[in-house]
Sequence to fold (79 residues):
Amino acid sequence: MPFKIVRTQTVIERMDEVEKTDSKKLRKINKTLGLLSNDPHHPGLHTHKRGEESPTGQAAWQSYVENNTPSAWRVFWYY
Fold:
């Protein structure tokens, strides 16, 4: 069963900006969120635990939207 992804208001606003300026990057973000929902440890995401906690004290994780790209985007999440 896929995980439910809940986006913060900041994420919603940022994705709205990206939708207007960079549709290619938006497709990558949506693909990443789909992979993350189905399998957070999918090899293409290069998921790893960060050395910090979420605001609620849970372990924070990082997954890649892009890899081997200057200024590559990342998704930070917890569950």
Q: What stands out?
A: The first strand starts at residue 48 and ends at 53. Residues 15 and 21 are 10 Å apart (CA to CA). Residues 23-38 form the longest helix (16 residues). Residues 9-77 form one domain.
